[in-house]
Amino acid sequence: MKRLLFLLILFSLSAFPFIDVTAQDESTSSEDPQADFFGLPLCYPGMPNDGTCLPLGPAKTVAEMQEAGFPYPPRDLPAAQPSADLNQMPVFVAKINLQANEPAPIYSTFEDAVAGNSPVSQIDPGSLRYIRYINRQDHNGNPYLQLATGGWMRASPAAYTDFQGLQFFDNPRNAFGWIVDQTPSYEAPAFDAPLTGRNYVREDVIQVFSILESGGVTWFQIAPGEWVNSLKARAISVNLVPPEGVNANRWIEIDLQQQILAVYEDDRLLFATLIASGLEPFYTQPGVFQVYEKKPLETMQGAFEADRSDFYYLQDVPWTMYFDQARALHAAYWRTFFGYPQSHGCVNLSPGDAQWLFEWAEEGDYVWVHDPSGMTPTDSDYYGPGAP
User: Fold this and answer.
1) Residue 54 DSSP class
2) Are 296 and 321 in contact (CB under 8 A)?
3) What is the pLDDT of residues 287-341, one digit of tens each?
4) How far is CA 7 from the centre of its chain?
5) Which of 160, 169, 214, 332 is the most exposed place for a label (fewest CB within 10 A)?
6) For the residues of 303-338, what is the DSSP string, one character each?
7) What is the rounded distance in angstroms from the CA atom of residue 235 to the CA atom of residue 372?
8) Average pLDDT over the chain, rounded to an integer
9) CA 59, CA 52: separation in Å to the nearest integer?
10) pLDDT at 88 > cutoff 80
11) How far apart are CA 7 and CA 5, in angstroms?
12) Is the peptide bond before 281 cis (omega within 30 degrees of 0)?
């Protein structure tokens, strides 16, 4: 039976002889313009077309990608997150969870705090109140915290973001950025375009190869046939040329439209991250400034409304650098996300990013604040001193 099967296979093969596709058929007329292609292999992706191969298939796809600005082979950003140790706060902080119209009492002892007897002082009513504490005791599942001044009060130890930007070891060749809100990607720069089936979440890093305005929205191309929009993403292009007014080879750029901070030194991008700048009407003022004071810890408090309903009290804000009156770069341990204007004029950073910047920067370093959209007022008479 096996012998019979072998003979059948042999007969079948002899009935359909093999065709050598790599050798030129001598019987083909040289006058046929397609004749020269029958014996040519496909070009390898990325190899120059010198006429000895066909620029089709994968080679054609790669050529089209390169023409559209996409690198081959694909490359990662020349960057990484800084050390996670930078996320470590230098102090313990807690949030006062009382109603905004209630004062927060401070007691001389833990026992008095538990009983609510004989407060010795208080923190004024306000919607944003954080304190520094040095000791904690729990009672019936509730935390009571001892302040650095010795008093005790009821407050909840704060959890803060561990988001960090990117530290670069070479200049990127294309724009980049972050997703700031969960979003799908689209096959074209339009909301009615088909979805790619890929979804992105807040703080995902993206590379940007093309930027296009469509339907009143900016679109970022992050891969061939894949787009996300500026409502859900932020992006920045590298600019190594010092802006007008910066007379040094190192400066901090703050892009108010994209809510991105970038650090440059010696013709290199060193660092970039998301920020939270001033929210209307408390804009961060555009202009060129210089860091005039660095403070490892700074207590910030105040109010803007006449009835002090917007009172804030923020003990020991870490890594503060003043650059424009009371406007400063500093950690914002009360922020849970970045990429949107949220402050009263200061430039808020995550604790890890603020510490990286504080360690790099020196008093006298330039801070360039600008808004490419032109939406932020530039008249200096508009601005007061600013706040966190």
Assistant:
1) B
2) no
3) 999 999 999 999 999 988 888 888 999 999 999 999 999 999 999 999 999 999 9
4) 69
5) 169
6) -SSTT-TT-EEEEEEEEEEEEETTEEEEE-TT-S--
7) 12
8) 88
9) 13
10) yes
11) 5
12) yes
The 8-class DSSP code of residue 205 comes to E
The whole-angstrom separation of Cα 306 and Cα 310 is 9
Using CA of residue 191, residue 193, residue 197, residue 198, what is the dihedral sign? negative
> Residue 285: phi, psi to the nearest 5?
-75, 125
Q: How confident is the model at residue 209 (pLDDT cuts 50, 70, 90)?
A: very high
Strands 312-324 and 128-139, sheet pairing: parallel
Name the strand (E) or helix (H) holding 310: none
**Residue 341: both structure tokens together:** 């204007």
H helix or E strand, kind and range, residue 347: strand 347-349
Closest CA to 257 of 242, 239, 277: 277
What is the per-residue pLDDT for 134?
98
Burial class (CB in 10 A: 0-12, 13-18, 19+), 328: buried
**Fold exhibited by the domain 173-236:** SH3 type barrels. (2.30.30)
Closest to 271 (Cα-Cα) out of 335, 355, 210: 355
What number of other Cβ atoms are within 10 A of residue 17's Cβ? 6
Give pLDDT, residue 75.
84
d(CA 230, CA 220): 7
Q: Give the integer Cα–Cα distance in Å for 354 and 360.
A: 10
3-state secondary structure of 304: coil
DSSP state of 87: G
Q: Which one-letter amino acid corresponds to residue 141?
A: G
pTM: 0.84
CB 235 within 8 A of CB 227: no
Residue 385 pLDDT > 70, yes or no? yes
Do 264 and 251 form a contact (C-beta atoms < 8 A)?
yes
What is the residue whose two structure tokens read 């060749």?
Answer: 173
Cis preceding-peptide flag for 73 (omega within 30 of 0)? yes
